Amino acid sequence: MLKFLPPRIRNAVRHINLNTLYELRVRADRPLTGNVGGVFRYLNENGVCGRAAALHPSAEEINELILAASGHSVYAVENQLRQGFLTGEEGERIGIAGTFVYDSGRVLSVNRITSVCIRIPHDVKGCAETIYTRCFGEGICSVLILSPPGEGKTTILRDLCRLLCERTQKNVLVSDERGELSAGELGESADVICFADKLTAFTAGIRAMRPDVIVTDELLPEDYLAVKRAIDGGIAVLASAHLKRPEDVPEKIFSRYVVLDGLGRVGKIVSSEGENVD
After folding, report:
1. CA 212 → CA 26, 164, 191, 215, 257, distances in Å?
2. Residue 113: which domain range?
3. Region 96-125 average pLDDT
4. Is the pTM of this model over 0.85?
5. Is residue 135 predicted with pLDDT exceeding 80?
6. What CATH number corresponds to the domain at position 144?
């Protein structure tokens, strides 16, 4: 995990239990910080420290990080970079900020990357047990998990996929657009399509793999058409979205809406009719 980090930043991480490290923020010439146990801390080569002692990564170290994470071939991950992220070989999502270069309304490249947000995937077995029990008591149905970014939606979806595979042996197709959702144990009856947009993954996956269930992450408004086609065709869809309330969902096509409470736990579950599900 995190093998692409430059030496100074790697030394800082070595002093932290990776089970408690959720995110690293690497900004050129500014203090290095990490989300450790749910709280952002300053870091240096000895681990957690005060602000005055924090490590200040250089622009050169950020370039080194991106090059290493790309397998030393930035051209091989050019399409990911144009979308503002890169995925490490163990599922680490590396978000980037810098200067986006456009040509004819299309992102051509990203120059001068100045900030990197690294999200570290974790397997938390059993974290989806409540959702499984309360949503699937009468059979598998379509579920949308809602919360702002960074509150555990991907981790829960991954565990929900594992539970489905273990307990039902249903054929589960995982549409993993960013290569993050499949960075962990999914179950032996799961098939994965990586780095394809959802329309492509859903269309090709349904034709080729005959799934009973499709699992995908971070729905955008343009993704709901593909999801609706799958649900209308008798396929259950388990997904997540960066929203706070069921009423903010643009297309009410799911049977259950799960709202997380801000700590990665289930706050409430409501039906498609807006009624609470016990």
Report:
1. 41, 11, 11, 10, 20
2. 7-119
3. 83
4. no
5. yes
6. 3.40.50.300
